[in-house]
């Protein structure tokens, strides 16, 4: 005598084949045998949007370095060595001023937020971007130049106003 459990009996019985789906006229995709059924090629990511995203994150991180809430070495892959050295120098100067006697110096670079970013293509491998950064006590302008490297985009010029 064979004891068949519910699981075994379900596996033993064949599952009825589901009917094939068909495309009804008026839908977005034509049938496969239709002459216009060729799919459009995959869209390449919009380079300007990519540059704006890279610029936004780089500017946010650079302002956080100036505020002392982020180590500058985190930007070593994104920034050119000269830009990184200049940012580290400015961050050291900002920390020295903030530790002084000025009542407003301690509020420099507090709660930074990148408000907007604009990018302009200079050539195939070069973009220039600008950003507006809002802080607790002021609004800053930031300009940067990005150049395509072998593996990724690198910031070769970074000017923080």
What does this structure look like?
The protein is an alpha+beta fold. The chain has a 4-stranded antiparallel sheet with strand order 1-2-3-4. Helix 2 packs parallel to helix 3. It has helices at residues 6-12, 47-67, 81-98, and strands spanning 113-123, 126-134, 139-148, 153-160. Helices cover 29% and strands 24% of the residues. A hairpin with a 2-residue loop joins strand 1 and strand 2 (126-134). The radius of gyration is 28 Å and the shape is elongated. The protein is built from 3 helices and 4 strands; from the N terminus they run H-H-H-E-E-E-E.
Notable characteristics:
single chain; 161 residues; alpha+beta; 3 helices
Count of helical stretches: 3
What is the residue-averaged pLDDT? 80
Calculate the terminal CA-CA distance, rounded to whole Å: 87 Å
Tally of strands = 4
User: By helix and strand content, what is the structural category?
Assistant: alpha+beta
Fraction in beta strands: 15-25%
Q: What is the helix/strand order?
A: HHHEEEE
Round the Cα radius of gyration to an integer and report it.
28 Å
Q: How would you sum up the major sheet?
A: 4 strands, antiparallel
Q: How would the global form be characterised? A: elongated
What's the arrangement of strands in the largest beta sheet? 1-2-3-4
**Helical content (DSSP H or I, runs of 4+):** 25-40%
Unreliable parts: none
In short:
By secondary structure, the protein is of the alpha+beta class.
């Amino acid at each position: 005598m064979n004891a068949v459990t519910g699981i075994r009996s379900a596996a033993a019985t064949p599952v009825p084949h589901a009917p094939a789906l068909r495309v009804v006229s008026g839908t977005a995709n034509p049938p496969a045998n239709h002459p216009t059924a060729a799919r459009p090629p995959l869209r390449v990511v919009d380079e300007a949007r990519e540059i704006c995203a890279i610029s936004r994150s780089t500017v946010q991180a650079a302002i956080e370095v100036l505020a002392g809430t982020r180590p500058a070495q985190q930007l070593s892959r994104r920034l050119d060595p000269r830009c990184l050295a200049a940012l580290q120098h400015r961050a050291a100067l900002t920390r020295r001023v903030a530790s002084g006697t000025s009542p407003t110096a301690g509020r420099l670079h507090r709660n930074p937020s990148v408000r907007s970013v604009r990018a302009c293509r200079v050539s195939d491998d070069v973009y220039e971007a600008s950003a507006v950064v809002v802080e607790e006590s002021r609004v800053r302008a930031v300009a940067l130049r990005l150049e395509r490297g072998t593996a990724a985009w690198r910031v070769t010029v970074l000017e923080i106003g």
